[in-house]
Amino acid sequence: MPTYLRPYLRTTGRALTRVWLFVVMFVVWWTWSAGSKSLYFPPLSSILKALWDQWVTGPARAELASSLEHLLAGYAIAAVAGIGFGAALWSLRYAREATAPYLYFLYVLPAPVLVPAAMTLFGIGFTMKVVLIAFAAVWPTLLNTLDGMRGVDSVKLDTSKVLGLSRARNVFQVVLPAAAPQIVAGLRNSLQVAIILMVVSEWEASSDGIGYYLVNAQQSFDYVGMWSGIIVLAIIGIVANLLFVVAENRALHWHYGARAVEGVSR
Amino acid sequence: MTEGTGTPVVSLRHVAKAYPSAAGVRVALRDVTFDVARGEFACVVGPSGAGKTTLLRCLAGLMPPTSGEALFEGAPLRSVPDGIGVVFQDYGRSLFPWLTVTRNVDLPLRVRGMRRDERAPRVAEVLASVGLADAGRQYPWQLSGGMQQRVAIARALAYRPDLLLMDEPFASVDAQTRFELEDLILRVREEFGVTVVFVTHDIDEAIYLADRVVVLSRSPGVVAEIVDVTLPRPRDQIATKADEAFARYREHILGLVMSRG
Predict the structure, then answer these.
(1) How many helical (H) and strand (E) elements, i.e. helices and strands, does chain A have?
(2) Is A258 within a domain?
(3) Does any domain span residue A22?
(4) Does A161 touch chain B if contact means CB atoms closer than 8 Å?
(5) Which of A95, A135, B29, B252 gets the most CB atoms within 10 Å of its CB?
(6) What is the set of domains in chain B, with CATH numbers?
(7) Count of H helices and E strands in chain B?
(8) Is the full-model pTM beyond 0.90?
(9) What is the residue-averaged pLDDT of chain B?
(10) Is A3 left (phi over 0), alpha (psi -120 to 50) or beta?
(11) Predicted pLDDT at B4
């Protein structure tokens, strides 16, 4: 085998490793469900047809769009507020100590139980959903930011002082970048939470979104539609994660580069 | 080399430093007094636990002494002044891995509000001085240990400090690289006319580099003796170390370090 082919073969091999199980499951589902007459277990072919008719070309596009709007707005607020408040708590020792028990309390509180409360406070519209998503998704980022900033190497902080960095520069040019790997891990958790809350916030007393569509389909015995909605959610999760990984690899290329040099495998 | 004119760059007056610890109070420095004149190369040697790093942190203004005074150019050190550059032992921890070599070196210049068109040639100049003219676009972690420490030296020299403090800077590189870096620091010291205080546990290194060696005694740190090193310059790794006088300095200083006085 010519050596120049090896990297390509390795990449192909890795891709196959990741894909084969999906292919097998798809084939099994497809053939197993092909002749199904059961209302609860519709053939995959009709689910995929509904996926196309409803979500790609049909009326459910509006639900998809409004869900994504909620998700984007809520997640963006959570990310900015998480990093901002995390950094603020890092620099204000008193505020940190005063709020620590409550932060933990809010963090462990399962956010879905807040749906009724959020409804009474903000109604059932856009605001309620965005507030709920942001509120639930803010904690992983906030706590990871605080933790990451507190864990910055003392030599880096000394170096920052020696080089004459002001307090603000120290935060933005040394502490935040040094904490970035942990902040990004928090942002990733926040993204998962945001997607969950996107659906949950649309379940009850809502008039739009994928969650609304799902519940509606289920209650009107449209199981084909329900399954298509679940697949759409899975696709949203996968795509959001992929975009996240691409952004992460760009932002943290130095981190992974340095770790690869140190011989730490990813 | 020891001009001794004007205010000393650094002056320590009965500096003591104690830390609270589980077993009461741990004394790192008991009573340290010495001056470093402008242009001088002073090495601080001592056995481990003699308080070398504590001493350097007091000199840098990173830590106030418990008693006594640390003066930089006549003024008491309260924080790190603009005129001090520091090279830490662990380059892997002191360089910023998210910045390229150029941007690492550029950072203190930006902090000082230098204009972009002045900064670029200055960065290129110091990188060339440490033999890294072509490494600017790389990241520190893409370089060897010795090269990373050169980046740290370049960064410390970029803003032309009056005083360069070095805390066992060559302790984590191999012997070969260490000799190269020793000669490099002697050369850039001439080139930039900077005063150097260099902390090391290696007696040979101290004698090879220094105009004066401050010998700390066993813990807790007091100055055992300050030894003037009058070996001719420029120094040479082979000739200087083969000199009989070099051997006498080594014997004398080793005796001071080992004694339990």
Answers:
(1) 12, 0
(2) yes
(3) no
(4) yes
(5) B29
(6) 1-77+162-261 (3.40.50.300), 91-160 (no CATH)
(7) 9, 10
(8) no
(9) 93
(10) alpha
(11) 46
- Domain containing A83 equals 44-262
Contact flag A164-B111 (C-beta cutoff 8 Å) = yes
In the β-sheet with B75-76, what is the strand arrangement from edge to edge? B75-76, B67-72, B10-21, B24-36, B221-228, B212-216, B41-45, B195-200, B163-167, B84-87
Distance CA B12, CA B68 (A): 8
Q: Helix B101-111 crosses helix B145-158 at what angle (to 10 degrees)? A: 20
Is A31 part of any domain?
Answer: no
How does pLDDT run across A176-220, given as a tens digit for each residue?
999 999 999 999 999 999 999 999 999 876 888 999 999 999 999
Nearest-neighbour CA in chain A from B44: distance (Å): 20
**Is A248 part of a structural domain of the chain?**
yes
Name the β-bridge partners of B167: B199
- In this structure, the strands spanning B10-21 and B24-36 are antiparallel
Q: At A137, which CATH number?
A: 1.10.3720.10
Chain B residues closer than 8 Å to A163 by CB: 107-108, 111, 155
CA distance A164 to chain B (A): 7
Q: Is the distance from CB of B29 to CB of B12 less than 8 angstroms?
A: no
Q: Which residues of A touch B159 (CB under 8 A)?
A: 164
Q: Are A176 and A149 in contact (CB under 8 A)?
A: yes
What's the domain count of chain A? 1
CA distance A158 to chain B (A): 7
Contact A257 B96 (CB under 8 A): no
CB contact under 8 A, A158 and B62: yes
Q: Dihedrals φ, ψ of A162, to 5°?
A: -60, -40
Tell me the two tokens of residue A135. 């509120």
ipTM, two decimals? 0.92
- Those residues whose C-beta lies under 8 Å from the C-beta of residue B81, and which sit 6 or more positions away, are B61, B72, B73, B75
Two structure tokens written together for B254? 């080793």
Q: Which residues of A touch B108 (CB under 8 A)?
A: 163-164
Is the CB of residue B36 less than 8 Å from the CB of residue B74?
A: no
How would DSSP label each residue in B216-227? E-SSSEEEEEEE
pLDDT at B2: 44
Token pair belonging to A52: 């196309």
